[in-house]
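User: Please run a holo structure prediction.
Assistant: Happy to. Please share the sequence and the ligand.
User: Here you go; the ligand is zinc ion.
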Amino acid sequence: MYCIYCWNTDTKVLDSRLSEDGSSIKRRRECLNCSNRFNTFEKYEKIELTIEKKSGKIEDYNRKKLEESIQKAFNKRNLSFKKLDLIISQVESKLLNKRKIASEELANYVLENLKEIDESAYIRYASAYNNFKTKEDYLDFINKNL
Ligand SMILES: [Zn+2]
């Protein structure tokens, strides 16, 4: 996605909502170079990427699955479409031009975003990914990362 004013490709998503027919996302972006703002209508990008799990198993990247894991981290607390789309679009921007990554790398991209947006979702996501079992697992993670 490039800026319509200066063609710079570094832009920030300010807002997003699903189009009325549900087939695309309307995003409001700001150019990080010239600071102009503009709207885009984007189809979900099909990301061709394979993920290597900790077990060594390989699977295709699946946006839906990523969404669900993030929704789970927010539990029943408020996660708007805008917020979810923002997290996913930021994570996916790191995945473009890659063919294969470790699941750990994907989890780290998600965690980087969650850390800024919502601390308890951040901890919950890390817990789900790393299989925290004891109070010490949580405390250790919090002490190291927050
Ligand atoms: Zn620009």
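The two ends are 32 Å apart (CA to CA).
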